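Researcher: I'm preparing a figure for a lab meeting and need a structural model of a single chain. I don't have an experimental structure, so a prediction will have to do for now. The sequence is pasted below. Please return the structure as tokens so I can convert it later.
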Amino acid sequence: MPFDIYDFRADHRNVLVTPEIRARIYRMAPGQVDSRHSHDLGHEVFLILEGRAEFTIDGDTHILEAGQMCIALSDQIHQVRNLLPDQPTIMYLSVTPHIHPTHTDRNEDGSAQPPHFPPNQNYDLARADEIPLADLIHAQVNAARTVAEAAQLNLRTQQQMATALLTALIQHDQEAAIAARNRMWEAIYHLHKAVYAFDQLWNDFAPRAVQEP
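Model: Understood. Here is the structure written out token by token.
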């Protein structure tokens, strides 16, 4: 199956947007300063590809150049400044997970501003904009039910397989121990898939749920 190839000198946009990750090639204009913000759930990775930028993360400030990277963990307030007055700074960044409201803007004292849900077009997405809002709401509830059912199944499987695993370890039965461990993983896998599907619906639905002021 063919895959896409991106060039940081030409592609300045989001290249992958899912609940698990938002990946972007980001071009900061000369002298540009981004707003102070944090991510409620996501860790953000920055890798400088070209240029020079000042990063302030959780009150600590450093200057990064091409080839260097840094990370802002979830809830850490951060701000980026392009230090070049006449050239852009280009970087790769990713936020994982990418769950709305995705950004929490911060006041000068560090306090959080009310949550804001930017439209999907801001992330180069429009997949849900043609779906009636009522259908998205019903799908959101159904996805939440699926998560709850998957969580209950996961709990039962963990309980049963924990007992089986302990028995296998006591009996030095390697094959049975591996089988029990693998059953535990299968339940965890299906739970995470259900959560990701729920997160995707939430990301589609949340920006359209109410009219932003």
